[in-house]
Design goal:
Distance between the termini: 46 Å
Strand content: 15-25%
Order of helices and strands: EHEHEHEHHEEHH
Number of strands: 6
Largest sheet: 6 strands, parallel
Number of domains: 1
CATH architecture: 3-Layer(aba) Sandwich
Length: 189
């Protein structure tokens, strides 16, 4: 059985916070792989600021140098909101020899009671909660908690930094930063 961590998100753009979370969970739980899974249409957030293919390319560039990190684009195979319950069902059919660990931030742990089909979902996948500032990993659902060094940057902060011509060095991988600047994403030049 292959132990696979899934880190979903809009990744608009992906940054070192995402990579730190993925590596810490991989190491702490002795997983074999982490799959970065960009959402097509996020059900709990506003839509992404960039096109799906741009976010996919940024994730590819962000994880390029880690042999345990992979891109999973299953949520782009269907239209409409990307509900985790449906996605996990598809992944289990496609990869029956994989045991899935779904990685979420503490902010999402608090929101779990609102997830579609959460009772069935917690039987299908092991949730992994990572700490975030101002949130606690407390839930009535079975969650493995992983301590992760705090890296206080968000994708929305990075978009603002690009838009306002502020420093973005050391916040995200150089290959991602180069792509953003080449494509003039988020107002970058």
């Amino acid at each position: 059985m292959v132990k696979v961590g899934i880190l979903g998100g809009t990744f608009d753009p992906p940054h070192y916070g995402h990579l730190i979370i993925a590596q810490e969970v991989l190491t702490a739980l002795q997983l074999d792989e982490i799959w970065f899974m960009p959402t097509n249409v996020p059900p709990h957030k506003e839509n992404a600021k960039t096109k799906g293919e741009e976010r996919i390319e940024m994730v590819k560039r962000a994880i390029d140098d880690n042999p345990n990190f992979f891109l999973q684009t299953i949520e782009f195979e269907r239209s409409g909101p990307s509900y985790t319950y449906e996605t996990i069902g598809l992944l289990q059919k496609r990869y029956p020899k994989a045991e899935f660990y779904f990685i979420i931030g503490a902010d999402m742990v608090e929101y779990l009671p609102n997830w579609q089909h959460i009772e069935e979902l917690v039987r299908q996948v092991q949730f992994v909660g990572v700490k975030r500032p101002s949130f606690k990993v407390k839930s009535n659902y079975p969650i493995i908690e992983v301590e992760v060094p705090q890296f206080e940057i968000s994708s929305s902060q990075l978009r603002d930094r690009f838009k306002n011509k502020q420093n973005t060095k050391y916040f995200l991988p150089d290959l991602v930063k180069q792509y953003i600047e080449e494509k003039n994403l988020y107002g970058a030049k």
